[in-house]
Specification:
Chain A: InterPro entries: Thiolase-like. Chain A: It comes from Streptomyces achromogenes. The complex is a heterodimer of chains A (356) and B (313). Chain A has helices at 31-46, 62-65, 71-74, 93-105, 125-128, 145-158, 164-177, 220-226, 254-263, 280-289, 313-326, and strands at residues 12-19, 55-59, 86-89, 111-118, 195-197, 200-201, 211-219, 231-240, 272-274, 297-298, 332-339, 345-352. Chain A has 356 residues and is of the alpha/beta class. By secondary structure, chain B is mainly β. Chain B has helices at residues 21-31, 178-188, 306-309, and strands at 7-18, 35-39, 45-46, 62-66, 69-78, 91-98, 105-109, 122-127, 138-143, 164-175, 193-197, 204-205, 211-212, 217-218, 221-225, 229-237, 250-257, 264-268, 281-285, 295-298. Chain B has a five-stranded antiparallel beta sheet, with no helix packed on it. In chain B, strands 18-17-16-19-20 form a five-stranded antiparallel beta sheet, with no helix packed on it. Chain B has a three-stranded antiparallel beta sheet with strand order 3-2-4, covered by helices on one side. In chain B, strand 6 (91-98) and strand 7 form a beta hairpin. The longest helix of chain B is centred in the first third of the chain and has 11 residues, at 21-31. Chain B is elongated, with a radius of gyration of 31 Å. The chains are: A alpha/beta (356), B mainly beta (313). At the A-B interface, helix 1, helix 5 and helix 6 of A face strand 1, strand 5, strand 6, strand 7 and strand 10 of B. Bound molecules: zinc ion.
Chain lengths: 356, 313
């Protein structure tokens, strides 16, 4: 929803963002050891201490860790004793940010720490992700994440909206601009490679990596105290589509479009967009759903094709969009996160800086 | 820094799931070589069928048979099949709209190569020889030249309906415990217990996890604790666990090793269970080749004063 729809509610902003370098493996670190430098980095940017935070919300997945309640160990990193006001989502941290935003809207807290992390390296990510599929009709067939994205890419090709070279260009551009992003996993020239699952080649697929990210939200005057140019959340919404792939039009993303509409994206142009498109064809689908033309700077970070740490990559999109506003490089930016196969669930946030 | 420890971690689970009336009819139908869809309020036929309309959320129950032949709506060539997938030889993933259906079903297509597959091609179901009432009763699809298959006339009523499925899953991991816990495990291999001191509150955590949960800061300074310790609290276990070779009743206790800032837990033996008490001084007992103490036994010292361990309860 947007602020305009709910007059009288408080202004809430992203005031700080931090992320790890995304690496193929981080064997030497437990989750909390990987996370802790990011938590301290984001706190340092605001001068806050863990004890000053009003609400904490995290995103992660037990299936990546291979252990039940794995997020509880990561809580050691935020000083969870004595007890704090805390919650967790079993998905990307962008949804943890949504929960934290609603918590701040209630007035129960003025600041929130949002973090998320994922170590894909211990398991086989393509197999692990099959466990999020419909357990009756789909999961018993073990269709992996690349295969499902390949079905979507072929649908787009059949519809005449892309061809293999257009897909390749998206991966190439993503990794080229990622040379400016020291946290990205794949930077510079990356071969388009062999078919992973045809029509997708390895260059159309995201790298598998470990990483973490953290964001601090603050309300009203508190945001201005903590950040010289807060990234105000003007609207944020998330929507979901039918679970069954065969019911959906895979060449479109109506849930992204609806979330964007509800978040107020279409009210005024954005100058910057960070899209969570793990596979090249998905960027085409998202650009169409969000009506982004060439005037919008898309994925200057390199996006998910350069670094896609599970459970953090969506939060990173919002963080990257906010950081550009903090630095004065954007005035109105869009952050998008996705979860599930073939863009099943989508979250859209609109961020704005104060007029200069 | 010591070498990072790694070990295989296998997670296996056989989920038992019950079926609603629509899923039951669909999966029972597959067992009987019949494909059923469900009709929506706007007269669309969803295959595979769902219990609620994905657009209106209206409850659905109007079953209708569709043909075992259909048309590929999109596909992807899988040259390297993975464990658990329908075919062990290269195949195409396909979404197939069966004749009579308005939506598509995901499955595998057995074809000689990607050049033999295209969107719009006609296919038919190849049934599995042994069928149990599961999506895998469809072995795969195969190319089909010709007309829609004839319907069987099944209504969706079956004598012996399937009411549940067992969905086995296995995921393989290589677990790595990280820096702090690796150091703890390495020390145990020489029968020493090592914790980490918080630089802020000075508390010594054992086993260490690399962070102080009170201060939210990394811990790094290693501190050897024990080997002796104090029972801070305990319980008497009267139920024998499956596969556990320990006679009941036995005592399970929280033990504050000397120098540690919090208690870990362990079994107490070498003393009748009803004589274990708070403050009892204990020491670890190692068995040959063990990677951690088998249990703790009385150390033969006077009991610790309550004040000495009350902060560790
Ligand atoms: Zn401490």
């Amino acid at each position: 929803m947007t602020r305009e729809e709910t007059p009288g509610v408080r202004d809430i902003a992203v005031v700080a963002f931090a992320q790890t370098d995304v690496l193929r493996t981080t064997d030497e670190l437990s989750e909390v050891e990987m996370l802790m430098p990011v938590l301290h980095s984001v706190l340092d940017r605001t001068g806050l201490k863990t004890a000053d935070i009003g609400f904490t919300c995290s995103g992660s997945s037990d299936y990546l860790a291979g252990r039940a309640f794995s997020f509880t160990l990561a809580l050691d990193g935020v000083g969870a004793w004595p007890p704090i006001s805390e919650s967790h989502v079993e998905t990307d941290g962008a949804w943890a940010l949504y929960e934290a935003w609603t918590k701040l809207l209630t007035g129960d807290a003025d600041t929130a720490l949002v973090y998320s992390y994922g170590k894909s390296s211990p398991g086989s990510l393509r197999d692990v992700l099959t466990r999020q599929l419909d357990p009756y009709y789909v999961a018993p067939l073990w269709p992996d994440s690349v295969a499902l994205a390949a079905l979507q890419a072929q649908a787009l090709i059949d519809a005449g909206e892309a061809d293999e070279s257009a897909l390749a260009a998206i991966g190439t551009r993503s990794r080229r601009v990622a040379t400016l992003n020291s946290h990205a996993q794949l930077r510079g020239t990356v071969p388009q490679g062999d078919y992973a699952v045809r029509p997708l080649r390895t260059g159309d697929c995201p790298p598998v990596g470990d990483g973490a990210a953290a964001v601090i939200l603050a309300a009203g005057e508190r945001a201005r105290e903590l950040c010289s140019r807060p990234a105000w959340i003007r609207g944020i919404d998330h929507r979901i589509e039918a679970h069954s792939l065969g019911v959906r039009d895979l060449t479109d993303s109506p849930s992204t479009r609806l979330a964007a509409e509800k978040a107020g994206v279409f009210e005024r142009p954005v100058d910057t967009a960070e899209l969570h498109a793990p596979f090249s064809a998905q960027e085409i689908v998202l650009r169409k759903a969000l009506r982004l033309d060439d005037s919008v700077r898309v994925n200057l970070s390199g996006g998910a094709l350069a670094a896609n740490p599970m459970m953090a990559a969506g939060l990173i999109r919002i963080g990257e969009a906010a950081a550009r506003i903090h630095r004065g490089e954007s005035d109105r930016a869009l952050g998008h996160a996705t979860s599930g196969p073939c863009l099943q669930q989508n979250l859209v946030a609109v961020l704005e800086g104060d007029a200069r | 820094m010591p070498e990072v420890l790694k070990a295989p971690l296998v997670v296996e689970f056989p989920f038992t799931r019950s079926l609603g009336p629509v899923q039951s009819a669909f999966l029972t139908g597959l067992r009987e070589r019949v494909v059923l869809g469900v009709r929506t309020g706007d007269d669309r036929t969803l295959v595979p069928p769902v219990e609620y309309d994905p657009v209106t959320a209206e409850e659905l129950h109007d079953l209708v048979e569709v043909a075992a032949t259909g048309t590929v709506t999109t596909w992807a060539w899988n040259h390297a099949p993975r464990r658990g997938q329908p075919l062990a030889t290269p195949f195409a993933w396909v979404l197939v709209r069966l004749d009579g259906a308005d939506t598509a079903l995901l499955h595998a297509l057995d074809a000689p190569g990607p050049d033999a597959v295209r969107t719009g091609m006609r296919v038919r179901i190849r049934w599995a020889e042994e069928r149990t009432g599961a999506i895998t009763d469809i072995a795969c699809f195969e190319p089909h030249d010709g007309d829609p298959a004839e319907l069987t006339g099944t209504t969706g009523e079956f004598a012996d309906p399937v009411t549940g499925i067992v969905a086995p899953a296995r995921l393989d991991y290589t677990y790595s415990p990280g820096r702090a816990q690796s150091a703890y495990i390495e020390a145990l291999s020489t029968r020493r217990t090592v914790g980490e001191r918080c630089p802020s509150c000075r508390k010594v955590y054992v086993p260490p996890r690399g962070a102080c949960p009170t201060c939210g800061v990394p811990t790094a300074e290693q501190v050897e604790v024990g080997p002796r310790g104090t029972v801070t609290t305990f319980c008497i276990v009267n139920i024998k666990a499956k596969n556990l070779d320990i006679e009941v009743p036995y005592v399970y206790a929280h033990i504050a090793l000397d120098g540690a800032g919090l208690a870990l837990h362990g079994r107490i033996s070498g003393i009748p269970y009803d004589q274990v008490r708070m403050g009892l001084r204990v020491e670890p007992v190692w068995t040959d080749g063990a990677r951690y103490p088998d249990h703790y036994r009385p150390a033969g010292e006077p009991d610790a004063d309550y004040d000495a361990y009350k902060e560790l309860l």
